[in-house]
Design goal:
Layout lengths: L2 E3 L5 E7 L2 E9 L3 H14 L5 E8 L7 E5 L9 H10 L5 E8 L6 H19 L2 E14 L1 H13 L3 E7 L3 E7 L2 H11 L6 E10 L1
Helix pairs in contact: 2-3
Organism: Rhodococcus indonesiensis
Pfam families: DUF1949, Impact_N
InterPro entries: EFG_III/V, Impact, Impact_N, Impact_N_sf, Ribosomal_Su5_D2-typ_SF, UPF0029_Impact_C, UPF0029_Impact_CS
């Protein structure tokens, strides 16, 4: 099962090897455009650094994932790909990482660079709070305005993911469930049988 970063601030980890400083930054992203914008942001923040190597994996479905990496001037295959391999090894999705390097005057060699860049990412991942990504069945549920607050509270209290709430003549919840039968039973008991779940597909959500 894939995982991603818990929503929140970037995860930052710094390491130093033979006077070279490596700053790894992990960010949750939802598109390759957002991932590349993150890379450019790090370049602007640290223009004095020699390298800004990066990797990202975006997309929950294995067949439709976008992933890229860059050595950004380091010898080919010594930075971007090893960084990407750490993301693969941890089965991370919707995550981008940038490792900024300030050269310390001592060359590390190809093997040393691979260990340095992959190690920097591993330290950042170890410091991150990860959440599983789960494919769940998605339904809409329409209730009266007078019942909406109680229904929403009970849904969330039972661990049902409320993805959206829209207010029209009735209040329509879009919800995602691990177990459709369990959700149907819950809704039936909450609404005295009046609530009708309408299936609308599946969606990946944080577990």
């Amino acid at each position: 099962m894939p995982s991603t970063l818990e929503s929140g601030p970037d995860v930052v980890a710094e390491t130093e090897i033979k006077h070279s400083r490596f700053r790894a930054v992990l960010r949750r992203v939802d598109s390759d455009t957002a991932a590349l914008a993150f890379v450019e942001e790090q370049r602007r923040l640290y223009p004095d650094a020699r390298h800004h190597c990066w990797a990202f994996v975006v997309g929950d479905e294995p067949a439709h994932r976008a992933e890229r990496s860059s050595d950004d001037g380091e010898p080919g295959g010594t930075a971007g790909v090893p960084m990407l391999q750490v993301l693969h090894h941890r089965d991370l999705v919707n995550v981008a990482v940038v490792v900024t390097r300030w050269f310390g005057g001592i060359k590390l060699g190809a093997g040393g660079l691979v260990r340095a860049y992959s190690g920097a990412v591993a330290v950042a991942v170890d410091a991150a709070t990860l959440v599983p990504r789960e494919r769940r069945e998605v339904f809409t549920l329409a209730v009266g305005h007078g019942d909406a607050g109680r229904v929403e509270s009970e849904l969330r209290g039972r661990g049902v993911s409320v993805l959206d709430v829209s207010y029209t003549e009735r209040v329509v919840f879009t919800v995602a469930a691990r177990d459709a039968t369990e959700l149907q039973n819950l809704v039936a008991s909450m609404t005295a049988g009046a609530g009708e779940l309408v299936p609308v597909g599946t969606e990946w959500v944080d577990g």
